[in-house]
Amino acid sequence: xxxxxxxxxxxxxxxxxxxxxxxVHLLAIGGAGMSAVARLLxxxxxxxxxxxAADTPVLAALRDAxxxxxxxxxxxxxxxxxxxxxxxAVREDNPELAAARERGLRVLHRSQALxxxxxxxxxxxxxxxxxxxxxxxxxxxxxxHAGADPSFASGGEVAQLGxxxxxxxxxxxxxxxxxxxxxxxxxxxxxxxxxxVQPDHLDFYGTAEAVAAAYAEFAGTVREGGLLVACxxxxxxxxxxxxxxxxxxxxxxxxxxxxADLRLLETxxxxxxxxxxxxxxxxxxxxxxxxxxxPHNVANACAALLVAxxxxxxDTSDVLAGLASFTGARRRFEVRGEVGGVTVVxxxxxxxxxxxxxxxxxxxxxxxxxxxxxxxxxxxxLYSRTRDFAAGFAAALAPAAHVVLLDVYGAREDPLEGxxxxxxxxxxxxxPGERRVEVGLTREQAVAHLVAAAEPGDLVLxxxxxxxxxxxxxxxxxxxxxxxxxxxxxR
Length: 491
Fold this sequence. Notes:
Layout: E1 24-27, H1 32-43, E2 48-52, H2 57-64, E3 68-71, E4 83-86, H3 95-103, E5 106-109, H4 110-115, E6 122-127, H5 132-145, E7 151-158, E8 163-166, E9 172-176, E10 191-194, H6 202-205, H7 208-220, E11 227-231, H8 235-246, E12 250-255, E13 262-270, E14 273-279, E15 285-290, H9 295-311, H10 316-325, E16 334-339, E17 342-347, H11 352-369, E18 374-378, H12 383-397, E19 402-405, H13 422-430, E20 436-439, H14 443-453, E21 459-463, H15 471-487
Parallel strand pairs: 1-2, 1-4, 2-3, 4-5, 6-9, 6-10, 7-9, 10-11, 11-12, 12-13, 17-21, 18-19, 18-21, 19-20
Antiparallel strand pairs: 7-8, 13-14, 14-15, 16-17
């Protein structure tokens, strides 16, 4: 029995089949999660329309795929619509949502629309505070490389597949299961993945205990005879695994700690990537080669390997070759350019653990190069998260030599009195070590300060779930513009 309660959506309600939805309209259709659902429904032949606040390349691609897309929100956009799909980020006073409720149209949460596509498939739902987008993307690439032709829906564009969602001919259907509003309990997958369980989204859950309880419920939604894959190194994920084993469910774990079913034996850096040795549950040892950086990505790859081999029965060597070919998901340690020895990387990290993972990975890379400094521009995401985890963000940013803190990106939240990026800057300045910390710069100032300070060997990292990503190409352009002056190039 599902007991995660979302006051706006009935997560216990039966999900209609995709061919019962009629004409579907998606609010904020250009968003990462919503555009994935739109692409999959279009691939099924469902009439799709949508609206969003501003035109983007994603909207252009959806139009090309057959969607009818409107700019701005207006109740008139609902003409001929049978089902409205929204996310928790859409407020109840949105004119389209308000009109749909008034007219008695079917209103589904985004996750419910995605779940409508899963019956009859070997559904894999990937959840976790950190790593779910990359693990989902790794699975999509590995299964595609192995010839399994999976369907998938990821929270980020899979770089080498060129999309965040696709409908394949194979039986596997891999979805990223977002825990932020409790909606990850609707999928009822054959295989569930829990990469880690950590307190986040306390604006919805209230307490860390409620977060842990939600993950336990998610694990309990696995179909009879299915499989839970969980990280043994993470205490919260381990607790979920142990509870499911005690209940007689099939569970496989991965990690470096003794007792993991898939054991990570060693890892050595190899350029921006790594080479690891793992022991699979059958006792065999294999080389796990990755082109993407960081120990967190080694863990993500271990999860993908277990799912593909032990869960879906794909050949181990084919999966390992697919993982070796993985070049990353958009905005997950994505290299945006290299100019004059300065590398610019963009990342979506927005909670303390994610920020810590990407900053420490970058710091290790800079240290191994033997020259240069790590410079980070961080944009806190959500006022509530900044308030709740300011000290954690400060600790996560501490390895950087230069930190620029942009104003908080509120997204769906209204400002909270006294909550600014200074809440992160003050404890960061108080931590041991020498670093330059700048708070309250405009975006233009941030670019100018970073470019003025950057030297060959530096790594400049833009971090956050808001619009900080737009600064990465601006930094690359500014570095390019200054280079002719440095080299004496007359151009």
